[in-house]
Design a protein that fits this description.
single chain; 454 residues; alpha/beta; D-Amino Acid Oxidase, Chain A, domain 2; 27% helix; 30% strand
Length: 454
Amino acid sequence: MKTNHSPWLHQLKKDRVSEILRSDIQTEVVIIGAGIAGMATAFFTLKNTDKKVVILERYKLAHGATGHNAGQVTSYFERGFTSIVEEFGLALASSAQKAIEDTWLLLDEIYTDIKSDIPFSRFIGHAGLSNKEQVLQHLKNNSLRRTAKLNIESMIISDTADFLDTIPNEYDGLYTLAPKEEIQSILEAKTTEFIAVLSYQKGCINSALFCQEILFYLEKKYPDRFSLYELTPISKILLRKNEVLLDAGHHTVAAEKIVLCTNGFEGFTIINDGGLEVNTRFHHMLSGTIGYMSGYLEAANKSPTAISYLLNAHKQPTDPYFYLTRRHYDYGDNVQYNLISVGGPDSALENHARYSHEHEYSDEMTKEIDRFVRHIYDIDPKKNIEYIFTWHGLMGYTKNKIRLIGPEPKNSVLLYNLGCNGIGILPSVYGGKRISEFLSGKKMEKSIFDIPVL
């Protein structure tokens, strides 16, 4: 069995000292969770309001899902655009899609403000499609994107695909044809099972390291309005009409507003003084999935990329798939390598089960990923691959795979920015900006991210 060893946490500053809550405190906004969602929420709230902000983290900065993710930046949802349109209508669905795509600019804003120099790669990434159903589904998504005047995802279909004559005319202009060898080359795949490739903007960033950079900036920029307390678990959250009280063990935290930026499995209880049930609702809004990833080093002789591989068994947009990222990575001896990170296998966290980052990494997961690498990725099949990083992380999935951003309808002192749904960096940052607008008192338009009224 291997340990949970994340390449993102490996790069964090080892001698940074965590500050622990040592007294009762009062603030205007308290944020629970110091991952990418919590840090982005703090950044935009401090920048766009005059409010005092405190972040409470039960463990350490970015050591949750943010430090155990795939490090891939992408603007799609973990469900097809067509299904979002069917649920919310074209106007709301396209507004949400545009908001997430515009979040690249919000990332730029943070990156520029904090004067970060950590690697942040952007490129055209790809997804390999292996059957007719996948191709038609993505063509339908693209057709709706075209109707909504959104950017179109580029698609190339094999000129020998046996269903070309059956593609509806309404999809004309949404794809081109090319030899299967070209598709295979784009996907860097040695297998011939892929019949189409979908291409769009993607990126790679160490979101844990990015959080650390944001922290250093906020501590310096707002010393009188910002504090982070780590190793400070919360057991109870008491919501009142105009304030919230948090039980932090030996100390109490009082605030005007609370923002939950967690994966939903922290073990705290929410008590609404107004009488309407919030605790059960909150804990039922999210289900847990443990994702498994492995990483190895190669020579830095290829450019960064991110590729998803939808194999033939992938029939529905929600079915599991493998994904690979490649980015430059400094490791140990001051030699720059390419880090190849591969993920895909996952398992559900059963109700009331306890997840721990200390759990060992299953050898079977390593074998499953290695089988994929040797079957798909364009490498020497006899090559000795040393997976120096093997990591798993707990992801919070909402019931409809759409992030929850905004105030709790039963008591608006509570707000949410949560639900990574497997793809969390851009939605988390967008959620941080949107929460800051709620906190500033701005009247917000209806969104697919709103918390449902039950």
